[in-house]
Amino acid sequence: MNELSILDYLLIAFSIAVSWRVYTNVHPPAAEADPLAPQPAPSSGASPAVHTPGPDGDTPLSVTLKRIVAACRYTSIDTFLDGARRAYEMIVAAFAAGNMDPCADLLSPALRESFASALAERAARGETAETMFIGFRSVTIEDAGRDQGYAWIDVRFVAELVSVTRDRQGRVISGSPDRVAVTSEVWTFERDLKAGQPGWVLVATDDDA
């Protein structure tokens, strides 16, 4: 077999380079995913109905929510709603257990005092409560506003619960351990937009709204 000359090596190298360029033009490499690009949220299939004004709405409520979103540096009002749903579950569970300490930071001073008074009265009567949260039927922003550096949002929670209250002897005096009840309440959350460590607190509840 004849040995290849230097010219032969150069021709082979040139052919390989041309072939590679043609291949990459026809089959470009896949683009690397941008880690900062928004990713689609996983579908849970059991999310509650969330009714909020559309992002392009021009109603007074839509405009107010846009201003609150901007002031809180949220990407959307869904950030607030996610926290509101978690707060609802925590507060309902804590009140049923008779200990509001785990969610004390989520309550205004006046509401903490109100809950503490109600729990003290329940304990004095020897009553106990049991509540099992099933899920939300809907979560609706009903109203919102800004005033002197504060923002507030009214949220209607329509939830399914199994709730029962028993007396000293363990007899059921309200609710039922075997029935799912549907409750509708409007909770008002407030936030100090000037605070160094911002956070929403529950300032009022209305179960007759």
Describe it for me?
The protein has helices at residues 6-26, 60-72, 78-97, 109-124; strands at residues 49-51, 128-147, 150-166, 172-175, 181-192, 200-206. 12% of the residues are buried. The protein is built from four helices and six strands; from the N terminus they run αβαααβββββ. Strands 1, 2, 3, 4, 5 and 6 form a six-stranded mixed β-sheet that branches. β2 and β3 form a beta hairpin. It is of the alpha+beta class and 209 residues long. Helices cover 33% and strands 30% of the residues.
Keywords:
209 residues, alpha+beta, 6-stranded mixed sheet, 4 helices, disordered N terminus
Write the layout of secondary structure elements.
Elements (H helix, E strand, L loop, with lengths): L5 H21 L22 E3 L8 H13 L5 H20 L11 H16 L3 E20 L2 E17 L5 E4 L5 E12 L7 E7 L3
Parallel strand pairs: 1-2
Antiparallel strand pairs: 2-3, 3-4, 3-5, 5-6
Elements, N to C (H/E): HEHHHEEEEE
State the shape.
Answer: elongated
Which spans have pLDDT < 50 for at least 5 consecutive residues? 1-47
Task: Describe the largest sheet.
Answer: 6 strands, mixed
Give me the Rg, rounded.
Answer: 30 Å
Regarding quaternary structure, how should these chains be classified? single chain
What distance separates the N and C termini? 97 Å
**What is the percentage of strand-forming residues?**
25-35%
Give helix % range. Answer: 25-40%
Number of discrete helical segments? 4
Would you tell me the structural class of the helices and strands?
alpha+beta
Tell how many strands the DSSP assignment holds: 6
Mean pLDDT: 79
